[in-house]
TrEMBL record:
InterPro entries: DNA_brk_join_enz (IPR011010), Homeodomain-like_sf (IPR009057), HTH-type_TetR-like_transc_reg (IPR050109), HTH_TetR (IPR001647), Integrase-like_cat_sf (IPR013762), Integrase_catalytic (IPR002104). This is TetR family transcriptional regulator. GO terms for molecular function: DNA-binding transcription factor activity; transcription cis-regulatory region binding. One of its GO terms (biological process) is DNA integration. The keyword DNA-binding applies. It comes from the Bacteria. PANTHER family: HTH-TYPE TRANSCRIPTIONAL REGULATOR PKSA (PTHR30055:SF226), HTH-TYPE TRANSCRIPTIONAL REGULATOR RUTR (PTHR30055). Residues 34-53 bind DNA. Residues 11-71 form the HTH tetR-type domain. Keywords: DNA recombination, DNA-binding. Residues 214-416 form the Tyr recombinase domain. It comes from Pseudanabaena cinerea FACHB-1277.
Length: 422
């Protein structure tokens, strides 16, 4: 076999030895390659080789580190190319398939090296095995970072940490390569495409159970209108609370924490400052339209009507700036005793508004469905996922569930529209 050496004048001695060793190890295996051969092809004295690397195992370690470094560069380039335009579960599948296929090609390009590494692993000194393990961990971390970015950008939930996904993924890839290069792979897999597709399916399908565990059940426009009218019949306060549920997507817990100072006006819109469970705050616009029906304006809506009534009851002069030293008087929905409205009370209000209505499966409407309805309405109006995540407080891993439900609704409406034209 003829080997082409790199011109001596252009490559440093150490690098030239490493390049030559890699070529010989890859073409004829580690065992069959001697240090004398490497020195001859690299055009150096064998003593020079020993001075740089100590022995053959030291040289092998340098070769492996070189391979891992090149692989890291390849992975990072692939990461930048693939992660830049990620936006869906389909992109997660595309990213994984790209990475698996390129990893297998890289391993299969040096078959004798892989065979030798497997067959001679027990002969390596402890420091060589340890250094190799560190290199593999570095590769795993690089791929874990890429997977993490893909999941974030595609708004996908995933029950396993990215580093564990990367570790398992690379273990499967390496295992397949070893089987391919040391035995009859068709005894296990009919071809490489079958293996790649199966591995991709295994990882992608891990996303689905979480999505199925939290089904999104929204409420139809006609039923929402009826619920709002029912709430209006009971009291001004009921109407205001129902309005907040459907016009701003607040949870019952969010409503119990609201204070007068949390309601402000910006131009022609009302803005609510909502405090999350961890003390984090977000601003949410109060929509004047709910599923196509207008409920007043920024200054004249169910919430403003309630606040005017409350203003009269407590005798304050400026509701928007009423930040009392006695925090109990600042509650937006306090009871007669000025204590916060309890979650149980809001749920009881919901039950009396929604008593006549049921879901398609016959189950009672749940208060969380008001938030689901608002979320889907915001997305259906064309709001991008990043903006939606900011105002809604929906966790990144849950956004895809809402998007999937919206896509389902759009598909159903399109099918109905097609039927109507026939």
């Amino acid at each position: 076999m003829v080997h082409t050496s790199v011109p001596v004048s252009r490559t440093p001695t150490r690098q030239r030895i490493v390049n030559t060793a890699l070529e010989l190890f890859a073409s004829q295996g580690i065992t069959e390659t001697t240090t004398r051969q490497i020195a001859d092809f690299a055009k150096v004295n064998e003593v020079t080789l020993f001075r740089h690397f100590g022995n053959k195992h030291g040289l092998l370690l340098a070769v492996l580190q070189e391979c891992l470094q090149k692989y890291l560069v390849l992975a990072q380039v692939g990461e930048s190319l693939m992660v830049s335009d990620i936006s869906s579960q389909g992109d997660l599948r595309r990213f994984l398939k790209y990475y698996i296929q390129n990893s297998l090609r890289a391993l299969e390009s040096v078959p004798e090296l892989v065979r030798s590494l497997v067959g001679e692993a027990g002969q390596y000194p402890h420091e060589s095995r340890q250094a190799l393990a560190q290199g593999i961990n570095q590769v795993n971390q690089t791929i874990a970072n890429a997977i993490h970015e893909v999941l974030i950008k595609s708004r996908l939930p995933y029950p396993v940490p990215a580093i564990k996904v990367a570790n398992l993924l690379n273990t499967c890839i390496l295992g397949y390569a070893v089987i391919t290069l040391t035995s009859d792979v068709q005894a296990v897999w009919s071809d490489r495409d079958e293996f790649v597709n199966t591995l991709v399916d295994m990882f992608v399908q891990e996303v689905m159970p979480m999505a199925q565990a939290h089904p999104i059940m929204d409420i139809g426009a006609d039923t929402v209108r009826e619920i709002m009218l029912q709430a209006k019949k009971f009291s001004v306060r009921d109407y205001a609370i129902a309005y907040l549920l459907f016009a701003s997507g607040l949870t019952a817990r969010d409503i119990t924490k609201l204070r007068l100072s949390d309601y402000q006006h910006q131009g022609n819109h009302g803005i609510l400052c909502v405090t999350g469970s961890h003390g984090n705050k977000r601003s949410v616009p109060l929509n004047q339209k709910i599923l196509g029906h207008r409920y007043g304006s920024a200054s004249n809506n169910p919430l403003s009507a309630y606040l005017k009534m409350r203003h009269k009851n407590i005798g304050t002069t400026n509701i928007s700036n009423n930040i009392s030293n006695n925090q109990t008087t600042d509650l937006m929905f306090g009871g007669d005793d000025r204590k916060p409205l309890a979650l149980e009370e809001i749920e009881q209000l919901w039950e009396r508004w929604t008593m006549p209505y049921r879901n398609a499966d016959g189950t009672p409407l749940k208060i969380d469905q008001a938030r689901h309805t608002w979320c889907l309405e915001m997305l259906s109006r064309g709001m991008d996922l990043d903006s939606f995540g900011i105002i809604s407080g929906v966790l990144p891993q849950e956004l895809a569930i809402y998007q999937a439900r919206l896509n389902e609704k759009i598909a159903i409406n399109r099918a109905i529209a097609l039927d109507a034209t026939c």
